[in-house]
Amino acid sequence: MSSIIQLLPDHVANQIAAGEVVQRPASVVKELVENAVDAGATEIKLIVKDAGKTLIQVIDNGKGMSVTDARLCFERHATSKIRQAEDLFSLHTKGFRGEALASIAAIAHVEMKTKQDQEELGTHIIIEGSKFVSQDVAVLPRGTSFSVKNLFFNIPARRNFLKSDTVEFRHIVDDFERVALAHPNIHFMLYHNGSEMFNLPQSNLRQRIVNVFGGKTNEKLVPVTESTEIVGIQGFVGKPEFAKKNRGEQFFFVNDRFIKSPYLHHAIMAAYEGLLKDGSQPSYFLYLDVPPHTIDINIHPTKTEIKFDDDQAMYAILRSSIKHSLGQFNVAPILDFERDASLDIPYEYKEKESETPLIQVDSNFNPFAAEIPSRAFSSSSGSSHSFGSGYKKQDSNASWESLYVGLKTAADEIDVSEIQFESEEVTGSLFGESEVETAGNRTYQIQKKYIVSPIKSGMMILYQERAHQRILYEQFLTNITMHHAASQQLLFPLELHFSPSEMVMIKELQSSLENTGFVFDAMTTEILVISGLPVNVVESEVKVLLEELLHDLQGELPENSFSQSDRIAKSMARSLSVKTGTYLTEKEQESIVNSLFACKDPNVSPFNKPTFITMGVEDLDKRFAL
What is the DSSP letter of 77? Predict the structure, then answer.
């Protein structure tokens, strides 16, 4: 029988490896930018066209590569970061596996230009699908320029799975922000389709965060600093009042490497216990410095998950540090982290004995006496004080009895028959609520969650939140598709601040949002000015509404307009629907019932969950059967 196992060709092995390393254009951006950081660059420029599908170019002023290294870097498992297995536990660089460039070259047209500082000439290499096309000598500046064109040109199936340009560019921005936040000492620039999206000069950590997420971020930050033998912590956390519904501005960095850790996130949420509203997420930018031998970063292909030697100690230190910072800066209630020196006892009083205060009492004083004589008595110290010298003789007839003169005649003049007494409201009810049901009511509310309405065959129970979601969903979807939404104009325009990446998504959704009733006056890279709102949207809810909409659409923005409108209508319906725990009047209950059955599909909510159930008389009879 012939053998069936054989070695794969290199180009096939590289394409398989690319499936792990290169999932989308953002994966290429991450690998190339991290290589530029490892090369010691002080200035990194990222140029992207069509969300990376057409071009991804990274230009740095790092140390560059020699002719041999330039050719060898495209080989599989060729790396300058490690020499032996033990080096995996003392890593100080970003990449170390040596698969990135080989995988990228297998699925794209790659052009690399590199030159070392001490060399007069550089190297220019062109590779297409793992095949070397040319290698020439060229006059180049110091550093490396890496261009990746036509990503997935030889794997059409992978290219077809890519999302819209807006979604793919959002992932590129996410990876760019993570590297830029980890290295504030490097000047980063990002250009998309010829437009400058980010220009982040060298700065300190706080200024880098403000430059990435907008000027309003500065007032939200609370510094965190802690140094122990296990871990050194520095960075910032957000004030509780600025917490958001989504988890966009949450960053962990361990030894300048971005990681994801649900365990450490739970420690932060524990530190915020009692300070956040339900469902809110705080912002944090935390940088942990730990000894490299105490962590393992080689447990995940993307190296975004790591394992600590002592997870419990990390948890306790992180939670305590954040609670201390929130209390120290008067964000949370405190006992005493800083003592007020003005309340301390002066040093010269330290050895001094306390003196008992003297109490002076006039034993002859009578407050009911008609006349208080003026007399003086001497204190123990020999000084005399005069009491009662300002009092005059008073007529005994003009004393307390004069206070009640005229009251009897005034009481006789009051006509008691004209007085109307307020009727006492009966607050007790069978269901323990203030709303008392009468026989004429068609609906009533249970636990501020369900609406019960009688029908011919028995009764119907509506889930008020889901029913209202269905009503609002069909209203918004009709308004978006028919372009006839009503809008309420604001007396003063509303100015909202968003990060540059969030503003990109809002501009993409602008036409659909305007069809729901929003009126936008101006849009910049960070500021959104709104002069009109949909009729059923309150001004105080606009910020939360847009944040939840961006969170729902983040990473899943549909390409066609109908799917986009559908997602917007669902998100707004979920945000604006009456929530469980909201008391509804009888008219509001009847309005929900009537509006629900006027919908095209009243049976389920926009998220395919039942909106109501029915119980027939026979079902009730079975319940009471003996």
Answer: T
Contact 236, 221 (CB under 8 A): yes
Cα separation, 49 vs 191, in Å, equals 8
Contact in structure between 52 and 151 (CB atoms under 8 Å) = yes
CA 47 and chain centroid, separation: 28
Of 302, 328, 354, the one marking the end of a domain is 328
534 vs 518: CA distance, rounded Å: 6
Q: What was the pLDDT predicted at 101? A: 85
Task: Tell me the per-residue pLDDT of 138-197, one tens digit each, with 9 for 90 and over.
Answer: 999 999 999 999 998 888 888 888 887 878 888 899 899 999 999 999 999 999 998 888
Distance of CA 183 to the CA centre of its chain: 22
Q: Report yes or no on whether pTM surpasses 0.90.
A: no
Residues 507, 476 within the same domain: yes
Under 8 Å between Cβ of 210 and 218: yes
CA distance 315 to 300: 21
Share above pLDDT 90 across residues of the chain, in percent, rounded to a whole number: 23
Q: In the prediction, which pLDDT does 534 show?
A: 86
CATH of the domain at 62: 3.30.565.10
Does pLDDT of 399 surpass 80?
Answer: no
Residue 317 lies in domain:
205-328
195 and 220 inside one domain: no
Q: Identify the H or E element spanning 180.
A: helix 165-182
Number of domains in the chain: 3
Residues 6+ apart with CB under 8 A from 238: 220, 221, 222, 249, 282, 283, 284
CATH code for the domain of 212: 3.30.230.10
Residue 43 forms beta bridges with which residues? 187
How far apart are alpha carbons 623 and 617 in whole angstroms?
10
Identify which has the larger pLDDT, 407 or 486: 486
In this structure, the dihedral spanned by the alpha carbons of residues 399, 401, 402 and 408, taken in order and rounded to 10 degrees, is 170
Residue 69 is assigned to a structural domain of this protein:
yes
Check whether residue 302 and residue 161 sit in a common domain: no
Shared domain for 46 and 74, answered yes or no, is yes
Q: What is the dihedral of CA 339, 344, 350, 353, to 10 degrees?
A: -130
Q: Which of 200, 235, 254 is the last residue of a domain?
A: 200
CA distance 620 to 626: 12
The reply to whether 534 falls in a domain is yes
pLDDT at 61 (0 to 100): 92
Q: Are residues 311 and 193 in the same domain?
A: no
Mean pLDDT value across residues 485-492: 84
Query: Does residue 149 belong to any structural domain of this protein?
Result: yes
My answer on whether 89 and 236 are in the same domain is no
Q: What contacts 259, CB < 8 A, 6 or more positions away?
A: 252, 253, 304, 305, 306
Question: Do 458 and 584 fall within a single domain?
Answer: yes
Residues 196 and 67 in one domain: yes
Give the tens place of pLDDT for each residue, 95-127: 545 577 888 888 899 999 999 988 889 999 999
The answer to whether 176 and 29 are in contact (CB under 8 A) is yes
Contact 530, 491 (CB under 8 A): no
Handedness of CA 455, 461, 465, 470 (dihedral sign): negative
pLDDT for res 248: 74
